[in-house]
Amino acid sequence: MGADEPRFRVLHVSNISMTATREQIYQLFAFIGRIDEFKIYPSDNHPQLSTFTQKFAYVKFEDQKSVEVAQHLTNTVFIDRALVCIPSISDTIPDEDTALKTGGPAWPGQRQLPPNVVNQIKDLGDGQQMLLTVDPTLTALGLPPYPTLSANTEASKVEEIRRTVYVGNIPKDCVGDEVMKFFNDNIGEVGESFTCTIDYGQVLIAAQSLNSTEDYFCSSR
């Protein structure tokens, strides 16, 4: 391995059954190699533990080769769920608050919904299906659920849609940069923005792609 090549020593394990214990998951990966550090989230004393549908863990091995081997446990059914094991590009395990907000390792160009947000497919009959995104935080804040989507919507597109808000009744002389600055200053960082004018009423519509679903909650209130 060259001196400039990254050393992936942290494995991110997701889709862990809520009934799995810390000791069970630790022992599973300890068979693969010596573990330097291990964290599993959400913790047993997390105040919103009942709202989560899965656990996930970070396993920092002593040897990078252990990460390469551990990836092969992907799709292994543990209790009642198939594990998903991928290396994290960071050699540092995040704290619980940071991990729960990001939902997993930060791969370049890849974003994920938080782990307590679950996509479900609902059968409408006659071969028709739709995708529902269930988020307990929306319910807790008294906000309406996310709009339904086509069942075949790509996962990456679902994440992007779920952090996008649409704003109407904006003054016609307002420019996109002004709308973006308002959201950046008062709600959260905006990833991208676009505006358009519809025919009836000449109402300017702005779509803001926020950088997290948490910002979406703030903008929706």
UniProtKB/TrEMBL annotation:
Residues 9-83 form the RRM domain. One of its GO terms (cellular component) is nucleoplasm. CDD domains: RRM_SRSF11_SREK1. It comes from the Eukaryota. SUPFAM superfamilies: RNA-binding domain, RBD. Keywords: RNA-binding. GO terms for molecular function: RNA binding. InterPro entries: Nucleotide-bd_a/b_plait_sf, RBD_domain_sf, RRM_dom. Signal peptide: none annotated. The keyword RNA-binding applies. Gene3D superfamilies: 3.30.70.330. This is RRM domain-containing protein.
